[in-house]
């Protein structure tokens, strides 16, 4: 696996808070950022896979909609 170094600009107060959190977890700021970015990428992959699965299932579905016998106004009529 190829690891790429990046540079981030972060407010000093934010960085101080994150450093404390990292120390509480026996970790580093670098490790926390790497973990967050890894989770973010994994979430995006899962969401994309779920959308693709829904599209595939929709195309394969044998279900068909019947004729619409109602209007939007009827649905919202109270």
SSE arrangement:
Blueprint: H1 12-24, H2 29-60, H3 72-76
How would you characterize this protein structure?
This protein is mostly helical and 78 residues long. Helix content is 64%, strand content 0%. The longest helix is centred in the middle third of the chain and has 32 residues, at 29-60. The radius of gyration is 24 Å and the shape is elongated.
Silhouette: elongated
Contiguous low-pLDDT stretches (5 residues minimum) are: none
> What portion of residues belong to β-strands?
under 5%
Largest sheet composition: none
Radius of gyration: 24 Å
Briefly note the structural class of the backbone. mainly alpha
Q: Could you give the distance between the termini?
A: 61 Å
- Helix count, DSSP H or I runs of 4 or more residues: 3
Helix content: 55-70%
Report mean pLDDT, rounded to a whole number.
Answer: 92
